[in-house]
Amino acid sequence: MDILEYINLCRVKRGNMSGAELARRTGQSPQNMNNKYKRNTFKVSELEKVAEALDAELKIQFIDKATGKPII
After folding, report:
1. Hey, CA dihedral for 37, 58, 49, 25, is it positive or negative?
2. With 90 as the cut, is the pLDDT of residue 48 above it?
3. Which residues pair with 63 in a beta bridge?
4. Which of 12, 14, 29, 63 maximizes the CB count within 10 A of its CB?
5. CA 52 – CA 54 distance, rounded (Å)
6. Dist. CA 46–CA 43, nearest whole Å
7. What are 7-32's pLDDT values in tens digits?
8. Inter-CA distances, 39 with 9, 34, 62, 64, Å
9. Average pLDDT over residues 42-58
10. pTM score, two decimals?
């Protein structure tokens, strides 16, 4: 699953929030947000804003490929 799919699933779970509404809540234009989706070029700081707009907490983990468990 890529970041676009994941964010879209989260938007649906948060009451079908539109892409334009998410962009507005993160201080971006819908066009700018769509460009980030297409290029998959989100910075961690931008993902933090997306999480905040979704009333969520952002957690990033490295997962061991062999075990499927978080390294830390």
Report:
1. positive
2. yes
3. 70
4. 14
5. 5
6. 5
7. 999 999 999 999 999 999 999 999 99
8. 19, 9, 22, 26
9. 95
10. 0.83
Residue indicated by tokens 């809540």: 25
Instruction: Find out whether 30 and 22 touch, Cβ atoms under 8 Å.
Output: no
Q: Coil, strand, or helix at residue 45? A: helix
Nearest 5°: the CA angle 39, 41, 63 is: 115
Are 2 and 40 in contact, with CB atoms under 8 Å apart?
Answer: yes
Q: Are 20 and 51 in contact (CB under 8 A)?
A: no
Return the residue matching tokens 């700018």. 32
Structure tokens at 37: 């989706």
Phi and psi angles of residue 63, each rounded to the nearest 5 degrees, phi first: -110, 130
Average pLDDT over residues 1-7: 87
